[in-house]
Structures are given as structure tokens and as C-alpha cells.
Amino acid sequence: MSSNKEEQELYLYDPSLLLKLDFYRSPAKFNPPITCVAPGEPWLKVRPLKSGDYRRGFLQILSQLTSIGEISEVQFLNRFAEMRAKGDYYVTVIEDLRKNKIIGSATLVIERKFIHSCGNRAHLEDVVVDDTYRGKQLGKLIVVTVTCLAEYLGCYKMSLECKDKLIAFYRSIGYVDEPGNSNSMTLRYDKQANL
Amino acid sequence: MSSNKEEQELYLYDPSLLLKLDFYRSPAKFNPPITCVAPGEPWLKVRPLKSGDYRRGFLQILSQLTSIGEISEVQFLNRFAEMRAKGDYYVTVIEDLRKNKIIGSATLVIERKFIHSCGNRAHLEDVVVDDTYRGKQLGKLIVVTVTCLAEYLGCYKMSLECKDKLIAFYRSIGYVDEPGNSNSMTLRYDKQANL
What are the tens digits of pLDDT across the range B27-65? Predict the structure, then answer.
């Protein structure tokens, strides 16, 4: 990809938001201390998803999480534009600058409500970090980044659907399985329809 | 409210969508059989939220669910317009036409994703039916309505955060607490910030 092409790339959301987050408000402990601005290695970068990330392996990273299907670059760009226009999608990635590759991602989605004084609540979705980058606290880093971002954006809460084996991890970051109210239930439809 | 004013009201989404739902695809059983088009009483109406519902007690119904705070009619209308512009909010209500009052509500929110071939998934939020209308299957009716709507709109799954005491209810409608993956975890922020 030429540097000229890179300059034409769009961010999904304003990258300066990531400079404003207060990691020290989070109960998460990092050892050694890292933040989204200083992620521990000079060749790691935490930033919003960019329109060129199709070519940096963004979908390959997501495929470590679940089924992706066949997605062309045009389909990716259409979905990117749709999310950007709606304005409530904060897909945040970690890039390995040495390889020009996306190695982790987490999505914050903001939902507008009437309850809580027309409040906004946050959903944490699609968290994944490349297996080969273990031991660098990057899972915690990307989750705390979007968790702090949701607070900065004024959400009153953030929640996620969580596998049993990840409960301890999310507890260490400040998430709670509230007694009597911590079940996630799902209905999967047979096939796609009309949207 | 004059009939002239009623004519000026906006629907949050196209009400004809509710005519197209196939209740018989749902595993939910109704006895006697009712649907969103024929909700069992001639004075009950299932429909999208309308801009005039502030004056029909919509917020009072939500207050049976959780804290609402002080919301002026202007704030309500601003949020309504915001949801309508974003296009992915399907707040669906039950009105008692005798009293011109909203007596139940459930919200379907559609989230756009990259995974599952740029699929859409659905969130079920803020389900409430007035206590004094028990025994009319209205809780099941409003949940099945938005569940069928999400399928019609092409979502690949719908999920919700569920209290322990409601697990059996949602199972009867086809929702599953998937083994090893049915936890909901939440982080509540101290105060609102900057959005």
C-alpha cells in the first residue's frame, strides 16, 4: 500500500479520543504499566479501525473468534461506511507496525435509550487478540481501552456476553456478574431474511 | 390530543412490518392463540412507538422497569428523532385504546457487524408490561413480536440479559442459555461524562 493511499484512509472514529482516556480510573492492573497510548512496545499501535484494514488482516483476526464467511473488500468498505455514518460504532484495533498487520480488536457499540434520563449504554463485542501475541497484556489493554472510551463518551454502563472461562478475566477489569441478573440468553435464527 | 395532532405523529419505524411477521415460526405457544395483529382484545393495539407516546404514559411504563429520571417532552422527542434517524431502533409498544395509554413495551436494537458475512445481530432490551394487565400473555406477545421482527429483518441471532427468575419464560419462547457461554457481565460507571 503506497503512503499516498494510506493518507486517503478514513478512521472509523476520531483517533484523538484515545488520547483522552484515563486508564487510572480503571480497576484493571497492568504489570508492567501500559496504556492505549503507550502499549508496551514501540511497534504496537492502538487506534480506531481504518478503511485500509481489510488489507491488514482485520478479517483474519476476527476469524480467530467466529465464522466470518466470504467478505469482499467492497462489502467491508460498505459496512465500514455504514458504521461510520451511524456514529455509534467504536471498533478499536491493535496494529503490529513492523508487519503492517492487525493483531487484535474489540468493539464498543453505543445504544441510545429512554431509560436513565435518555441515557446511553455500551455493549462490548467481538474481542480478539492474536494467539501468537500472548503474555503482552494485549487482551486486557484492548478491553480496558474501549471500557474507558465508553465512560469518556458518557455511558452509564457497559456489558458483555461472557464465556465461563473468561469470567475471572473480566472480574479483574471491574466487570461484575450481578447476583440474580447475570444470564445471557440467545435465540439463533435458521437463515437470513430481508434486511 | 386532537385527531389533527394525531395525524401529525411519526412512527419510529414502518408499522406495516408488523403485518409481515410469521408467529407460527416461533416455538412460543399462545393459549388462546394471539398475534401482534390480533392481540386478543379489540381495545389492544401492538405498534411501533409514536412521537405522541410521551403523552400516553410511555415513560411511566418504563419506570416500572428501572430508573427513568426527569425527561421533558422535548428531550423525549429529541431522542425519538435520533433513534429514527439511525434506523436500527425498533421500540414496540402495546396501547390500551380505551384509555389512550401505553401498557407495554419491548425494544429490538440491531447491531451491524463484520463477522458472519457482515451480518446483523439483534439485542432485546427494556421489556415491560403493566402489572395490572397480567394473564393476557402480553409479555410473551411483545417479546415474540420483536423476536419475529428481528428474524424478518435478517438478523442471525437475538440475545438478552436475563434475570434468573425469567430464564424459564425465555426458554419457552425459544431462547437458550448456551452451556459455557451464557453469562452477562456488567460494569457500571460512577457518573455521566462527555457525549
Answer: 999 999 999 999 999 999 999 999 999 999 999 999 999
| Cβ pair B183:A184 closer than 8 A | yes
ipTM score = 0.93
Q: Return the CATH number at A83.
A: 3.40.630.30
What are B96's strand-pairing partners?
B44, B101
- Residues of B within 8 A of A75 (CB-CB) are 117-118
pLDDT at B171 over 70: yes
Note down the domain range covering B158: 3-172
- Cβ contact (<8 Å) for A177 and B183? yes
- Best mutation target among A49, A189, A192, A194 (most B Cβ atoms within 10 Å) is A189
B76:A114 CB<8 A: yes
Residue ranges of chain A whose pLDDT lies below 70: 1-7, 191-195
